[in-house]
Specification:
282 residues; mainly alpha; 9 helices; globular
């Protein structure tokens, strides 16, 4: 009898490639930064009249400094723990650069943001770990490209990381293909487009009190009243923008999704992320 260790079983054709795997440290850092992000975004919905949190509302933008550090820590932990190789770094750079270049194309035009479609499909093919890193890095790069650096930037990075990662967590990554997969991704992209817009609305809504609007956050009002104000704020200020983003994402997914998914899967198979790079002596 032979004691030789049998070689690892090859993955079945079409199996999802994990360019970045979320290990224990990465998951812990992601949970931490997500908790801080949720607290920094949704605190108005939990702060009643006279709350000390409301009293320091104008200090909240400074939270971005600490949140940005945590975001960088999440990305660093993910990369270091997964052993992100040069091929995955190259794929990350290409997709992030493409997404950053696509973002300004529809800036200021009824929410036409083709980068969202690219993020959803990339997360689907390359998995949740790669998706979170890609979403965060893409928003950071696009902020530098468009000059959109400010207290909102880390929340954009976190939100895009969440929704790109969510695409990688959708069911059937190894089995579901064809029209069914496209419909699922289009539905997810539609909801995620509104979810992203809602998160970013929450980030800026508490600081428009100076406008004396009846949809602005009122620290002296009750939580249900402020929730009603926020819903009215979303309907009157960003519904058209979010709807445009959602419709563009659905249309691009249904028309170009099959081609892009095939190209991404072919590229990941050829890259063979999980095969270590070795250098033979000359």
């Amino acid at each position: 009898m032979s004691d030789a260790t049998p070689p690892p079983m090859p993955k079945p054709p079409g199996a999802q490639v994990r360019a970045v795997r979320l290990g224990p440290r990465s998951v812990a850092a992601l949970v931490l930064v997500s908790a801080v992000g949720v607290a920094g975004i949704a605190w108005p919905l939990f702060a009643g009249p006279g709350s000390q949190v409301s009293a320091h509302a104008q200090d909240a933008p400074w939270l971005f400094a600490g949140l940005l550090v945590l975001l960088v820590g999440v990305v660093a932990a993910t990369i270091s723990e997964s052993g992100l190789g040069p091929k995955a770094v190259a794929m990350l750079g290409v997709l992030a650069a493409t997404g950053a270049a696509l973002r300004p194309l529809g800036a200021g035009t009824a929410g036409i943001e083709p980068m969202f479609f690219l993020m959803v499909l990339s997360g689907r093919v390359l998995g949740p770990g790669f998706g979170f890193v890609l979403g965060s890095v893409t928003m950071f790069a696009s902020a530098l490209l468009t000059g959109g650096v400010g207290p909102w930037m880390p929340f954009q990075m976190l939100s895009m990381g969440w929704f790109t990662m969510g695409a990688g967590l959708l069911p059937g990554p190894d089995r579901l293909r064809g029209r069914g997969e496209l419909v699922m991704l289009a539905g997810y992209g539609f909801l995620a487009a509104f979810g992203y817009g809602t998160v970013m609305n929450l980030e800026g809504w508490p600081f428009m009190g100076a406008l004396a609007s009846n949809v602005a956050f009122d620290p002296q009002d009750t939580v249900p009243a402020n929730l009603a104000r926020f819903v009215a704020y979303c309907l009157t200020t960003s519904l058209g923008w979010d709807l445009g983003r959602a419709v563009v994402t659905v249309v691009l997914t249904l028309t170009l999704g099959a081609t892009l998914l095939k190209a991404l899967r072919r590229a990941t198979r050829r890259a063979a992320f999980e095969t270590p790079v070795t250098f033979e002596p000359r």
